[in-house]
Predict the 3D structure of the following.
Amino acid sequence: MSLIYEPAGRAREYAALACNVYRGCDHNCAYCYSPLVLHMRREEFALPTRRKSDFLKQLEREAANLSPTNPIVLCFTCDPYQLLDVKEQVTRQAIQILHRYGHRVQILTKGGSRALRDLDLMTPGDAFATTLTCLDETTSVKWEPSAATPKNRIATIRKFHSEGIPTWASLEPVISPAYALEIIRRTHEFVDLYKIGKLNYHALAKTINWTAFAREAVKLLDSLKCKYLIKKDLKAYFQR
């Protein structure tokens, strides 16, 4: 297997299997770890391209030869609904291929309403997830220049939930504990699961009291009876 793979490191806590539809991402998020992981310059990573011309054929071969077990996340080192996908629409074809061979799909995106194009493909066995770091557009543009606005992302995950698709929100990275806690308060009625991890690879991370945040987040989530996953790097602070 080369397209469908087992994530390593922190990504492994999110899913056992994943597939990256594109190479690079035009959202250009300031906190993105993918250029580091892929050994790419940020400038190069921010100019995404399609995968090799036989990507879909190879994905079909792998999907056919892999027994359906764990859901396959689209995507970790790119965004399946970045701006490039509006033109290319490879994500839709990838979902169709995976479903053809009985695989469940979990979408992880900051593309917001761009994902609604493929709502008709999603089933209750799949899941839709969005990354949320803040609630105001000004902060979002600073950190995530070409991603959908927080308002748009929230409206989109609400729509998927209303259509019976399981949802989860990635509160990673946390760029502000106050933002993260408010996101939980505003979204818990239509987010089925929260996955929370700290900010890494950025100087701002050293200024945040992670112990205080972890404890306050768990307290809030428990009070709202939310399901959640606290990633290991953040859980370490909670246990201190």
Remarks:
- The first helix runs from residue 34 to 38.
